[in-house]
Amino acid sequence: MDYFEEVKERLSDLKFRKKLFGGLDEDDVYKKLEELTMDFEKAFEKQQAYYTGLLEEHGVEL
Q: How far apart are CA 2 and CA 44, in angstroms?
């Protein structure tokens, strides 16, 4: 299972708002980084739950 596929897709489609006079809109960059961080955290939690479940099925205690 690839829990990070959604994050990879989002990264490939990522576009930042530009300022009128050079550079990127900093607020937009920080907002997008925060959203990506949340996406990574969700994917990690799903992956962790999956593997914890597998370990429990096989009687492995953490």
A: 10
Model pTM score: 0.76
Question: Tens-of-pLDDT digits for all 62 residues of the chain?
Answer: 687 888 899 899 999 999 988 899 999 999 999 999 999 999 999 999 999 999 999 998 87
Question: What residues does each domain of the chain span?
Answer: 5-57
Q: Which residues of 21-48 are buried (b: 16+ CB within 10 A; e: fewer)?
A: eeeeeeeeeeebeeeeeebeeebeeeee
What is the Cα–Cα distance from 42 to 49, expressed in whole angstroms? Answer: 11
Residue with tokens 């607020």: 27
Nearest CA to 4 out of 57, 45, 40 is that of: 40
